[in-house]
Design a protein that fits this description.
- The structure is a homodimer.
- With about 350 residues, chain A is of the alpha/beta class.
- Helix content of chain A is about 35%, strand content about 20%.
- In chain A, helix 5 crosses helix 10 (about 320-349) and helix 6 (about 145-165) runs parallel beside helix 9 (about 285-295).
- The longest helix of chain A has 29 residues, at about 320-349.
- Chains A and B meet through helix 1, helix 6, strand 8, helix 8 and helix 9 of A and helix 1, helix 6, strand 8, helix 8 and helix 9 of B.
Amino acid sequence: MWAGRSFTLPVSTSDVQRVKLICHKRRSRQSNSNISKMDPKDDKRNASRCSSPVCVHNPHLDALKDDILYHFSLGTGTHNLSAMFGDVKFVCVGGSPWRMKSFIEYIAAELSMEDPKADYPNICAGTDRYAMYKIGPVLSVSHGMGIPSIAIMLHELIKLLHHAQCTDVTIIRIGTSGGIGLEPGTVVVTKQSVDPTFLPKFEQVILGKTVVRSTDLDQSLAEELLQCSKELNQFETVIGKTMCTLDFYEGQARLDGAFCSYSEQDKRDYLNKAYEAGVCNIEMESSVFAAMCKLSGLRAAVVCVTLLDRLKGDQLNSSHEVLRDYQQRPQILVGTYIKKQLKAKAARS
Amino acid sequence: MWAGRSFTLPVSTSDVQRVKLICHKRRSRQSNSNISKMDPKDDKRNASRCSSPVCVHNPHLDALKDDILYHFSLGTGTHNLSAMFGDVKFVCVGGSPWRMKSFIEYIAAELSMEDPKADYPNICAGTDRYAMYKIGPVLSVSHGMGIPSIAIMLHELIKLLHHAQCTDVTIIRIGTSGGIGLEPGTVVVTKQSVDPTFLPKFEQVILGKTVVRSTDLDQSLAEELLQCSKELNQFETVIGKTMCTLDFYEGQARLDGAFCSYSEQDKRDYLNKAYEAGVCNIEMESSVFAAMCKLSGLRAAVVCVTLLDRLKGDQLNSSHEVLRDYQQRPQILVGTYIKKQLKAKAARS
């Protein structure tokens, strides 16, 4: 039986080999009459593009008259994506819509682009699935919790950046996590995302069969972020492995979920093995984020603060003030990094 | 090596057998001095309880002084959960916060409990992870998109209902889905949730090992909902299998994601096999919802409208008005069902 046979997999096929690695460099299909004419400055910008585009790997997209980015409430037939997003160079993503709004306010101030009178409108106001904000070359997008939620967002974000003909885009996930053997408040820049057996891979089910994808992240970007944190000298930052799970409670060996069938010793043994394997922290999105960014040619990093040390407990019982302070750390580090990059670019040009 | 050995699993251990099936009937630990005294009516209500409680299966919970339901921004030490939620008999959950607010407004009107001047406050206003609304015996909670997001919500919801000493609770997920061989707008009541190989199981990774859980739903509740729809006679409703996936694009054989390595024929073959296996629709939460509700003794159903026929296309290009009409159908059916149940209960007492 087909279903039975299929279930005996995982097939360890590298998807990077399977996917036709042709980057569709076609122009975005901004064909709809509702769209205002593209910004003439775009031509100049396009002409200067000789570096990394944002790649889709899907020959079927060419057959679409319009591409509806349903969960963003945006589309090529209704929005001029090049005009709206063509200048994006940095994308920051995080779980919480509130945090991503707060990030855009922070970065606007950092880049001295803030307008005290202005509110930053949610570009995805037509839906409550995700929230999106933009200031200058920086885009801030929420992704909800867990691999499926961030994967939907990334499919549509990658298509958006592709349709908008963006180039040389750096994408950073800023988030929270449980630490392993680290002081709460430590920021972890992910070297590699690993699964719950500590292996660096992401399993994607396609047509009922499991395909294995790499979870490597950009090492030079991780090092640059670490260097940036050293110069900033405000909080401890480390580079290490991040374990990505599909569940917050049983999946992360917590003792405080609705169900728990293991002992405190079982939990301790598991987390100690994670520690020995080089895992610094645990969260729920990094594996698919790393896999999808790698496939699309995006330079990617994951920067998460640890809210507690899981070797010492499970419940998040620090005060709101302390947690708020911790949660601002990835945003401060990434904000400083973006500012530094833009300054360096301005000095070069 | 431990990690390697662990990875050679899945272990097909039934978790229902593994978990100690003792339902902790202890009273909720409403010990904190911040809490107002429990409603005296509670004693009467407790005395009459001879039916189904909401079960947690976690002996470690007893060791917690307070239980912080972090993603709800609620807790036993800060909120009187019995007073707030003790009368809950119906819980409706759905992905979108907006839709769950709209549901509570709808149900308030249906039950003639609405106050035209009143806004329905979000009980989880301290966080943007989930939204929660209540009117009388009906609780409405959003769960975001995908298995991990709904699983976090369900862990905390089950603990909340347990701490609040709720009994005889019915829980229904109302949502949207892609149909297979059905007219768009058809409502599907799930008979059984199946995985992408069409098998009725949910795999939960615990301490790095895979545990298989049943995805059976309450058959009598499904039949009652179908009967209710027949009486309502406003839209087509069927009972069938629902396929639950971890991804919206490649995981559901769509041709319009950022990546697609298969042909249109491959897609068609896969969806035809799903159709032959009895799959009526595809969504992203039903398997873990069924598994967790079964473990906790909650009477559970999944009611999703199909927004399109996946045998005919991938993109959601119906007008906003049509999609809005479709999205109201599960809410109308479940609202009618709840009203009917409460009327019948009132007639009996």
